[in-house]
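User: I'm curious whether this sequence folds into something compact or stays loose and floppy. Could you predict its structure so I can see for myself?
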Amino acid sequence: MAEKGKFILPKLHHVGVAVKDVEAAAEYYYSNFGIGPFMIFDVDLPDVVILRQRTRLKLKVGIGQMGDIYLELVQALEEGSPAWELVYRRGEGLYHLGFLVDDLSQALAQLEKQGFKGLESAGKGKNRFAFVGSRKAEGVLLELMQLESDLIS
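Assistant: Here's the prediction. I'll summarize afterward.
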């Protein structure tokens, strides 16, 4: 039973993995595990806040069906992004767990009360996302997304 006032994560939407090469990783996961096929696309976010600094974020992303959820492969195209830091300091691997939420602001406020820190955010209106982390989370980030509709379903 959940404690009163604790944020309870909704159903898992996707698992994010930071990789050096999205195409090679997508081929690996598809040929070895049947995950996919993958939609691969470039993402250019001109107004992202990372650690309270506004910046541009360029990524290549691959999204493949994995049972009831998605596998999201994330390749940083420029130095300095959280995905780049992970790959080139710790190696490729688990980056984040993604969840859809109805009210991003409310979810972030509750998680901050529980000791999580906002690390990255972007979007406008009803289509927004934020990454949060905690030293207690063993380096795995949570991505919370508020979307008008699930863009990849």
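Summary: The domain at 12-146 is CATH 3.10.180.10 (2,3-Dihydroxybiphenyl 1,2-Dioxygenase; domain 1). The longest strand covers residues 53-66.
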